[in-house]
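Dear support,

Our group has been running a series of protein-ligand predictions, and this particular one with NAP is the one our PI (initials K.S.) wants archived with full inputs and outputs. We had some confusion internally about which version of the output was final, so please treat the block below as the authoritative record. The input we submitted was:
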Amino acid sequence: MPHVITQSCCSDGSCVYACPVNCIHPSPDEPGFATAEMLYIDPVACVDCGACVSACPVGAIAPDSKLTEQQLPFVELNAAFYPERPAGVKLPPTSKLAPVLPAPQVRRAGGDLTVAVVGSGPAGIYAADELLTQKGVRVNVFDKLPTPFGLVRAGVAPDHQHTKGVTRLFERISSHPRFTFYLNVEVGHHVHHEELLQHHHAVLYTVGAPHDRRLDIPGMELPGARTATETVAWINGHPDFAGLPVDLGHERVVVIGNGNVALDVARILTADPDELARTDISNAALSALRSSGVREVVIAARRRPVDSAFTLPELIGLTSTAEVVLDADDHALVQEDLATATDAVTAAKLEILAKLPVASDRIDRRRIRLAYRLTPHRVLGTERVDGIEFRCTGTEDPVQFEAGLLLTSIGYRGAPIAGLPFDESAAVVPNRDGRVIDPVTGTPIAGAYVAGWIKRGPTGFIGTNKSCSMQTVSNLVDDFNAGLLGDPDARPALLDKLVRSRQPDVVDARGWRAIDAAETARGDAEGRVRVKFTDVSEMVAVAAAAPEPPLARRLLAGLLR
Ligand code: NAP
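Confirmed final output from the archive:
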C-alpha cells in the first residue's frame, strides 16, 4: 500500500526531508527539481510509514487505497517516474537519505539580525521561516493588503482548497514570537527602502510579479478584453479587482495561452456554481457565474499540443472534473506529436489529449475546448469584443471565433521597485542568487535582497519558493556574518512608531486573525469555507475592533521578542 502524491503537490519538498527511506524525488538538490511538474513517490521503495503525509502542507499525499476516483491516475504517474523493475527490487541508493540543506548559521557576535521582508506571499513566509530557525533573528513582514499570503489567497483557484491548505503552515510560521506583521502598509508609499534599512540590517523583497504580460494586438482596449489573472483576482475577491465588470452574458469565452492559469480560469467559468458555493469564491463572482450564459471556453495556444504550457497534474485534474474537447484537426496534431514525444511526462499529456472527445457542433453541457496553432491577430468588434481572429501558425490562414469575453493568459510580469534597479526585458530585479546587483558596476547593493517571482520570474509552484527563499536567506546570513550589512541606526521600537505615524490603519497579526475569524464565521453561517471581505475599509474596521490581548500575554510577547 504505497503512498501517492496527487494533484495539489506544491513542490516545497517537505515530504522529501520527512521520508526515512529517501523514496521521494526529484529532491531539491537533484537536477530535475527546478523543472519537475510535481514530486513522485517510488512505490517499490515506499515503506508506507506516512511521514510524508504529516509533512505535506497541502494534503497532497495519501495511501493508494484511499485515493478518490479522480486521483487514481496519480498511482501510475508516481510509478512512471522510476525505472521499471521487478517488485521488491529497490533502486541502487544514490544517497542514504535526501541531504538536508544546511540551515544558515548566524555567527556574528554583537546584536541580533533584523530583516524586513516586503510581501507576505509564499516566498516571503518561507524566507521568514528560514530566518527564524536562528536564535536572535527578528523578522518584520510588510504587505500592502490587510490580509497576508499573496497568491495563496488571491491567485489559487477557489476549487483548489487543498492547495490553499498551505495557509495552515503559513499561520504557524507567522505565529513565531519574533515574527511581526505590518499589513496594510505599502513600502514605497507609507515607508521607503532607505527608512527600512535604517531599522533593519537587510530588506528582502518578495513582492512577486503583480502585473500581466500584455498582448499587443489591435482591439485589446475594447470592453470585454481583459486578462485571466485579473479575472482570477476577481474570482478570489482581491480588493483591487472586486468590482471588475466581468460580462458572462455571452456563449463563448476565448482564453489566449494554455498555462495553468488558463486552465484555472476555464475550469471556474464552466464549473457548477453550486459546487463553487461551498468554497471561498467571492460573492460577486459566484452570482455572475449563477447567471452566466457561457457554454464554451476555448483555450487557444499558439504552438502545438507537444508544447502545451499546462502541467500534467493540472491536465489530469481538469479532464476528471470538466468536459474537455478537441477539434479533429488538433487530434491529428496530437497523433503526430505522440509519434515523436521524447519524455514520459509529455507523452502522458499527449495520451490524455488523444482520448478527449472530438468537439461537435452541439454543446450538451458547458465545455472547454483546447485549440492549437492559433496566433492571436486582432480583436473583432467596434463597441465591444465580438470575437477574435487568429492566424493559423504555419499557414497564416485566418481563423475566427465569436466570443463575448476575451482573456489573455500569457504570463505574469514583475514591476520595478522604488530605489532598486530593474531588468526591463526579464521583468525581474537583477540579482545574483538573491543578492540585488547594481547592473552598472556588477556589485551587490548592500542590504537589498530578492526571492520568489521578482527574483527568478513568474514560474513554478507555491513550494518552489521555499528553496528559492532558502538560497537568498543563506546569502543574506553570510553577508551579515561577514560584516557586510550596516547595523540599523534606530532602536527596533521606533520602527513601530514610524509605521503607525505614516499608516494609522496598520493591521497586525491580531487584526489579521480577527479578519480571518470573521470571514470563517460568515462562511460557517452559509456552509462555506469562508466569505471574504473584499473591501479594505471593512477589513480595517474588523481588525481595529479586535480585542486587546490580556496584559500578561502582551508583556510575555514583548519579552520573547
Ligand atoms: P505560463 O505557464 O508561462 O503560460 C503562458 C502561456 O501564454 C503559454 O501558453 C505561452 O505560449 C502563452 N503566450 C505567451 N506569450 C504569448 C503571445 N504573445 N501570444 C499567445 N500566447 C502567448 O503562465 P501562467 O499560466 O500564467 O502560469 C505562471 C506560473 O504559475 C506557471 O509556472 C504555472 O505552472 C504556475 N501556476 C501553477 C498552478 C497550479 O499548479 N495549479 C496554477 C496557476 C499557475 P508559448 O508556450 O508558446 O510561449
